[in-house]
Write a structure and sequence with these properties.
Number of strands: 3
Mean pLDDT: 97
Largest sheet: 3 strands, antiparallel
Helix content: 25-40%
Number of helices: 2
Strand content: 25-35%
Radius of gyration: 16 Å
Length: 76
C-alpha cells in the first residue's frame, strides 16, 4: 500500500520559496502568475493493514509542522 502526503504552508504564512519561483517565472516571461505557494509531497510505501489514522499520526508527529503547515493524505 502507498500513501502520498501533500504538505503546504498555511494561508497567511510567508512563503519565500514561492515568492522566488513567482519572480523567476516573471523573469522568464511567464505573465499572469499572481501567486505561488511552495510545498512538498512525501510518498510512503506502507505495510498492508496500515491505516489512514496511522499516516495521520505520522503527519502530526513528524511529516508536517502543524503550527505553520497543513497536510492532506492520499491513499493509493
Amino acid at each position: 500500500m502507498k500513501a502520498r502526503v501533500h504538505v503546504m504552508l498555511k494561508v497567511g504564512v510567508l512563503d519565500p520559496q514561492g515568492a522566488a519561483v513567482k519572480h523567476a517565472l516573471g523573469s522568464l516571461g511567464f505573465e499572469g502568475v499572481e501567486d505561488v505557494r511552495q510545498g512538498k509531497v512525501i510518498e510512503l510505501e506502507l505495510a498492508e493493514g496500515t491505516t489512514e489514522a496511522t499516516v495521520t499520526e505520522m503527519c502530526e508527529k513528524l511529516l508536517a509542522n502543524t503550527v505553520i503547515e497543513s497536510y492532506r493524505v492520499e491513499l493509493l
